[in-house]
Amino acid sequence: MSILRFLAVFQAAAEQRPALSGVQTWDDPEVEALRKKIAGLDVRIAELSARKTVIDEVILAFQIAQYEALGGSFESCLRLRLEFLRLKAARSGAEADLHAEREAAAEWEGCQPFAADDNAALDALGDDERAELRQRYRSAAMRCHPDRVPEAGKATAQGFFLRLQEAYRSGDLAALRAVCRELDGAATLQVDALSLPGCELLRRHLSDLQDHAADLILAVQSAQLDPLYRKAIHPADWDAEFAEIRERLEEECDVLQRQIRILSRG
């Protein structure tokens, strides 16, 4: 990514920072000190947000290319996994097999487009936007499908999943991106300016910014260590990577087909 692109992302992140309103402006050393700390953190957060955005864009480009190269093979493999696990669960009735079947069903459902890919909504998008919409939806749906989360988180997951479906059906890329950001744990830093005195409001806001900066530092560090990102930063190696994955998927499909035939005969 060029330095001009990085600066554009940096500026966009800075412009999206929420303004802190309702704070009195008298000359007070404590107020000025707090303001300086907040200003410094705003710059730091904008920089970190820009770095995270660059990383996310690199990963997304890799995922889109991967899906375009392997989507058919991957979906065939998921379909066969589900068919095999259904047969196995039906035969054994074991809870472990039933759980594996539910997991496979969630994965299969999460990677499926809607009827006719909702052509009316998707046709309004450009090719790159359609590819991003599909990839973000499939990736996020597999993370928040209610069947893939613990019982305590199912209600929250269901809310995310329904919003994802609505954003995808309507071709609303901005809304889908917003849901993905929430899934990534992006903090919202909002303060009730009317209920707090000036210094206390600033302290609260500073504390929120410090927490948010710490979260972003961790997110950037984790993303940089992510094996997916390590692959994504080497585009020259993508074709070889995809060819290796395709070979593994085809081998798995062959094994699954043999196992399905054995269980079907039994």
Automatic annotation (TrEMBL):
Keywords: Coiled coil. The keyword Transcription regulation does not apply. InterPro entries: DnaJ_domain, J_dom_sf. Residues 239-266 form a coiled coil. This is Molecular chaperone DnaJ. The lineage of its organism: Bacteria, Pseudomonadati, Pseudomonadota, Betaproteobacteria, Rhodocyclales.
